[in-house]
Amino acid sequence: MPKDGHPGHVYILSVPSKFEDGAAPASLASEAGVKEVDAFYVHPTTNLVTGDGDEHNSTLETEQSCPRIIKCLQHDASCFAGSTRVYAPYYRQATLRNYMAEGAAEIGAFQTAYEDVRAAFEVYLELHNRNPDGSRRPFILAGHSQGAQHVAKLLKEKFCGPQVEAQGGDAAVAAELRSLLVCAYIVGYPVGPSYFAPEGGHSSTTAAPGPTEDTIRAATSATDHTGVYLAWCTVGPGMTSTLAGGKLVSHQLVPQELGVAHSPVTWALADGVAAGKEAHRGAYDVEGGRLLKGLVTAKAAVTGCLLTVAEEETAELQTGVFASFPGDYHRGDYSLFWADIRENMKARVRAYTEKAAHKPIPTKLVAVSKDITSWWTVAAIMAGVVAVVAVVYAKAK
Question: Model's pTM, two decimal places?
Fold first, then answer.
């Protein structure tokens, strides 16, 4: 349905009370004054074209008819529903074939996808990031796989002061954005402090000394300072790479070994300590509508981006719900730790709201990018901004 004069789509979806703190809200409007934080979620690659041909990017029409995207919202973005208003853009994603080569066409495909995500985020800021009293709303950024790739680039280009200034932008605007950022979940894609560090800056895989205060830093605990990111790529015992790193060419943000891993059970950074199954809050089986508590242990690598789950050979873990292929749980990066992420998100929101004292974002921040030159293009991208109030689950058995 159109929203604010733009051709957008608003999904009003219900959530079973088993996974919700209260009754599922009836509409976006009824929630606007209740949920104090938004979540901007970017979905992973769902266009699995790998053969030769000219299709490097999906069309927006393809995006809007893709059932895999709805599945991603169900088993990934759903962990943010209930406590936040969730926005998820359709975008002209780079198809899977682009991860198999590194030519100009492939690089261009990812740039096209990123520009759509950036434009959608700017539209979110302009049209949706306001409370009824006109004040700005804090938000969470989240992405998976290709979506995480674009979220990380968005953080680097719009939130990191030195990079913004290097592009001729205003570091004060970047500071305002950082002040609104609760945290970022950059999951299923190698990323580390060297990616966000200023040119010539510290490239250690640890959070400290790491990048400076005017950039984005890796979180070091469950509720540490705001404006941080959390990252991991999930694999089984004995695996030395993940689908999100082992098969990529030049499109990695950083080499796998320079990425970092957080434990989504303890939220420790690169500590190499396994958290037992008793600490695992629960995986979400979207097909069966079940919350599976105590399913896995989890250990974040001391070096590199891998999170290892030392699982038993359970039928649940080996299903396509969680596994991309044996030993690689890229597909389950979010859903394996659905309840853990949900609780961490709530804790971070509480910590943020206790500290928050916002200033208005400068007007120029919300202007649509200068390279978006036609209303047709703006309208096409706006058609991809989806307000997910709450995400559909299968009823819990």
Answer: 0.83
